[in-house]
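hey all, quick one before standup. I had two proteins in the batch that finished overnight and I want to keep them in one place so we stop losing track of which output belongs to which input. First protein below, input sequence then structure tokens straight from the run.
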Amino acid sequence: MARMTRPGGLGAQTWPELDDRRWTVVVPLGALEQHGPHLPLDTDTRIAETVARRAVDRLAAEGHDVVLAPPLAYGASGEHEGFPGTVSIGHDALRLLLVEFGRSVCRWASRLLVVNAHGGNAHTVVDAVALLRSEGRDVAWWACVAPDGDAHAGRTETAVLLSISPDAVVREQIAVGATARIGDLMGTLRTAGVRAVSANGVLGDARSADPEDGRRIVDGMVDRLVAGARRWSPGDRGVLA
């Protein structure tokens, strides 16, 4: 029989309630970075936490021994440092954080799943997960990505925030930013940052964002994450398919 955890996730538990090694710990990974003039700095963390929490709730209801850890709310966001409010810990610190987090969790839990919602973290997550897996730890990751979504603070993320945190969206500031293909912008983004290609920090057009689209996007993410966690078959890069 599955064991039910207390409301509030990992931080609300007592150690005897976790005193065996069958648990899967799910940790949301976000960032603190500009998201245009209309979305909060913690947008990525909100998305990661929402998707992870809903997936954990479903998996627990199905009988899986799974618990949600508090989010890791800082990431590698150097490309956004041209805008006030952004706080980036960089790739080296993020890698060390994930590796030490994973080593510690896997001393008492069976598995660790990192749910990442900031694209700039992805390379570092792959590297950290690969090291942890090479050490014999059952660690995987999954990305909060919407099919056909735009790049940053545009229609996709704005729709999601309108769905999950409507009060956090400054609706009168919803705007269009750089709308060129992300591949065409990538060279400048890497060398000069987001501000060099978008004065307002938006990569996309947020004006058509709709909360119902956001709800469908989140539901789809949760469905895919739950399916991947059920299968638990990490690929070569440690990602759950």
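OK second protein, same deal, sequence then tokens:
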Amino acid sequence: MKIHIINGPNLNLLGVREKSIYGDADFITYFNTLQQRYTSHSLTYFQSNKEGELIDKLHEVGFNSDGIILNAGAYTHTSIAIADAIAAISTPVIEVHISNVYKREAFRHKSMLAASCKGVIAGFGLDSYRLALENFLNQ
């Protein structure tokens, strides 16, 4: 299977920022662990702090992949443009969050993306990504 992981703003700072919320592991190390565990599958990773670049990546991979795991960061709660991009592509998208957004500030309780996604996984730390990946692999 060909699965793409796309991370949005500030997720390049994992392991450095707000460790009490996001933990102390950086994403590249975690991604390498996923690649080593799932060697028979093609896993790619992209991160951007720019909304347009996230949309461009969704357009690029959204018609020739088996799945997309998307953590859009704060854009989850604000971006109709990313929601439209997800709705426009044929590849299923699972929205993920490291923290349990429903235990945080009220503005984080609303996802602009969820209605266009296959599902949402939140609150399991970096393991949220593995859970999404397992969903795609077990179809």
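Flagging for whoever picks this up: Residues 2-137 form a domain with the Rossmann fold fold (CATH 3.40.50.9100). The chain has five helices and five strands.
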